[in-house]
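TA notes, week 10

Several of you asked for a full example with nothing omitted. So below is the full record: C-alpha cells for the whole chain, then the designed sequence directly under it. When grading your own attempts, check the secondary structure regions first.
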C-alpha cells in the first residue's frame, strides 16, 4: 500500500504569466508557497475477490472493469499513461476542491507519485511536475498554467520562472524571523464558493483575451522581482509585500470578466477597511479562498469584519 502526502499551494504574484501562450513569447514568473494543508492519495493492488477490477474513491465511488469506463478524467488518463491496472485508489484532502489552492494539481502530483511508487520507481520532483503538467494540460485538455503542478511537486516558498517550454525553481531565502512574521501576517478566509478553475481560465486565457491583456500581464510579471526583493532584503519593510498584493489583485481583476464578482469585491473591501494592507483571491478567480496580509495589531478587527467566513 502506498500513501502520498502532497501540499496545497497559495500563489502570491505572477499568476497568468505561467501560461505557455504568454511565457514562451514574453517569459513568465510566479512567487508561491506550499503550506501545512495536504492531499492524501492511497493506492494498492486490488485484491482478486471482487466482481470489478478497480475501485476509485474520491467525492464519488467508481467500480469498473475497464479503464475506459472511468469517469474521472485525471485518474483515467493517468492510469492509461502509466499502464496501471487492477488498483484501489482513495483520495482525501484537508481542504475542499475547486477553491483556488491548486487542489486538482496537488491531487495529480500525489496520484502520479503513488502510481510510480506502486511500480517500485522513485521519480524526481522535476519529473513529477512535468508529468502532472502533461496529464492535466495535454491528456485531460484542461486550460491553465503550469505553476500549480510545480509548486505541489517541489514544495516550499519559491520563485518559478518560465521560458521556452521550460521552468526553473529558485527557493526564496528569508531570515527565519522574517519568514515567521510573514506567516503570522497572512490570513486565509474561505468564501464558501467553489468553481472549476478551467472554466475561469478559458475566459482569462483564450488567445484573443490574452493578446488584449498582455500589458497587464507584463506589469504583473514585473511585480515578481519587486516582491522577491522585499522578502529577501532584511532592511525592507515587509508591509510593502502586503501593499503589492493589493496592487497585483487590482491588475488581475482586469484580466477577465470571471475573476471576481460583486460579492467577492464587497468582502475584499471589508477586509481592507478593517485594516488589511492588501490581499487577493487565490487561484483562477470566481471563488475559493481570500488571502489577506494584515499587521498583527489589526487582525482582531479583520477577523471581526469577516466573521461570517
Amino acid at each position: 500500500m502506498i500513501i502520498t502526502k502532497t501540499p496545497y499551494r497559495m500563489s502570491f504574484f505572477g499568476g497568468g504569466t505561467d501560461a505557455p501562450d504568454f511565457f514562451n513569447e514574453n517569459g513568465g514568473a510566479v512567487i508561491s508557497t506550499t503550506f501545512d494543508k495536504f492531499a492524501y492519495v492511497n493506492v494498492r493492488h486490488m485484491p482478486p475477490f471482487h466482481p470489478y477490477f478497480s475501485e476509485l474513491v474520491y467525492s464519488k465511488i467508481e467500480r469498473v472493469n475497464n479503464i475506459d469506463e472511468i469517469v474521472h478524467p485525471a485518474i483515467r488518463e493517468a492510469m492509461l499513461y502509466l499502464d496501471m491496472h487492477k488498483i484501489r485508489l482513495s483520495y482525501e484532502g484537508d481542504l475542499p476542491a475547486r477553491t483556488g489552492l491548486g487542489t486538482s494539481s496537488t491531487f495529480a502530483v500525489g496520484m502520479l507519485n503513488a502510481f510510480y511508487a506502486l511500480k517500485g520507481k522513485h521519480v524526481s520532483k522535476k519529473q513529477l511536475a512535468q508529468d502532472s503538467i502533461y496529464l492535466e494540460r495535454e491528456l485531460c485538455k484542461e486550460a491553465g498554467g503550469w505553476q500549480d503542478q510545480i509548486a505541489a511537486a517541489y514544495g516550499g516558498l519559491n520563485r518559478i520562472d518560465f521560458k521556452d517550454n521550460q521552468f526553473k525553481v529558485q527557493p526564496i531565502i528569508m531570515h527565519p524571523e522574517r519568514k515567521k512574521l510573514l506567516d503570522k501576517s497572512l490570513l486565509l478566509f474561505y468564501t464558501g464558493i467553489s468553481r472549476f478553475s478551467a472554466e475561469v481560465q478559458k475566459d482569462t486565457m483564450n488567445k484573443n483575451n490574452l493578446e488584449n491583456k498582455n500589458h497587464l500581464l507584463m506589469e504583473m510579471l514585473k511585480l515578481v522581482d519587486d516582491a522577491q526583493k522585499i522578502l529577501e532584503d532584511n532592511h525592507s519593510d515587509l508591509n510593502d509585500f502586503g501593499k503589492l498584493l493589493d496592487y497585483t489583485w487590482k491588475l488581475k481583476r482586469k484580466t477577465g470578466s470571471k475573476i471576481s464578482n460583486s460579492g467577492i469585491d464587497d468582502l475584499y473591501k471589508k477586509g481592507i477597511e478593517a485594516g488589511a494592507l492588501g490581499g487577493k483571491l487565490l487561484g483562477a478567480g470566481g471563488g475559493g479562498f481570500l488571502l489577506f496580509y494584515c499587521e498583527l495589531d489589526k487582525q482582531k478587527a479583520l477577523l471581526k469584519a469577516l466573521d461570517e467566513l
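The longest strand covers residues 28-45. Use that as a sanity check on your answer.
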